[in-house]
Amino acid sequence: MTIHLYFARRFLLILLGMTAVFFALLALIDLMEQLRRFNVDEIGFAQILRLTLLRAPEGLYQILPLLVILSTVTLFIGLARSSELVVVRATGRSALVSLLSPVSVALILGLLAVSTFNPIVAATSDQYHALADRFRSGGGSTLSISSEGLWLRQGGVGGQAVIHAESTNPDASTFFDVTILSYATGGTPSHRIVADSATLVDGGWELKNARVWPLIPGINPEAGKKDHETLVIETSLTRDRIRDRFGTPSVVSVWDLPQFIRELEEAGFSARRHSVWLQMELAQPIFLAAMVLIAAAFTMRHTRFGRTGLAVLTAVMTGFALYYVRNFAQILGENGEIPVYLAAWAPPFASVMLALGLLLHMEDG
Predict the structure, then answer these.
(1) Minimal CA–CA distance to 281: which of 207, 188, 345?
(2) DSSP letters along 253-289, please?
(3) How far is Cα 212 from Cα 221, in angstroms, rounded to an integer?
């Protein structure tokens, strides 16, 4: 039991150190990107730093399998150089039994990542997008889905507007049964618009069969009502930005994804991408355990056999290959080429089987 706790503690310390190093690197790289994207003279360096820190957790979460495989390589290379693995084998313990500690740590880490770190990443990513939209367009834009339909708030130099739609088409370019409430710069309502549909065109919304009521004090809204067969109002939103907000599952907590998927389907959106993401998040602990097994399969050998650098390179490249296969399966699942559960769960289990096969061959073969 003591040796298992020793291996687990050492692996965890290496993983924490590796995480700190990559967090600093990602934050530095993203800081340069934010300085290029935004004018520091207009919003200030403090806001640039805030954007960087809000985006860093998402990048760190994406490279979590890489952190695990690098930490495992570092652990077993260190154990091999200090001959600790030789001592463990000499006591009669199998090398496979020695893997129980790092594999258990990887499984626990995966569970914590999905249950705790994922909601944090979702919150910071959502706040980053909202803040970046405000700095980019001069006003915030918020999109949400509820049982009452789709809600959207757009902002600009001319004021704010709240848009409600009952449903939309799958690519989020046309909204149906639309109601728009516009506010002047001071925050007072200026007019209300009801339309059969609203299509997003370059720089504006194209409304069909629109009715406009002015909401100016002293004017009867019904008396000032105007009907338009086609009406175009300005907007800073684009199709890509709307699809990114609704189409990016990472901005939704894994705890809220089931309800969000149901609301997406009710609003007319395709929720397949979110379904694949949800299942892949649930399979994350198994994939992290597979990364530990893959790295161990190539680095548990003693350093006297030589070619340590080649073994490390092979372990890392194999991990990258499995990560690529996992992402490729995700794309196939999102496009409907393969079932959702197959896309999410097949790569982790296949990776575990491959790693176990390599371990059995190298240790007992």
Answers:
(1) 345
(2) -TTTHHHHHHHHHHHT---HHHHHHHHHHHTHHHHHH
(3) 9
Count the neighbouring beta carbons within 10 Å of the beta carbon of residue 137. Answer: 17
DSSP state of 157: T
Question: What pTM, to 2 d.p., does this model score?
Answer: 0.75
Give, for 122, the enclosing helix (H) or strand (E). Answer: helix 118-137
What digits encode the pLDDT tens for the residues 281-323? 999 999 999 999 998 888 876 656 557 778 888 888 998 899 9
**Amino acid residing at 101:** S
Alpha carbons 198 and 192: distance in angstroms, whole number: 14
Over the chain, what is the mean pLDDT?
Answer: 82
Question: What pLDDT, in 10s, does the model give residues 135-158?
Answer: 775 555 556 666 666 777 776 656
Dist. CA 323–CA 345, nearest whole Å: 13
Query: What are the domain boundaries of the chain?
Result: 2-136+254-364, 142-236
What DSSP letter does each residue of 55-111 carry, written as one string? HHHHHHHHTHHHHHHHHHHHHHHHHHHTTHHHHHHHTT--HHHHTHHHHHHHHHHHH
DSSP secondary structure code for residue 181 in this structure: E
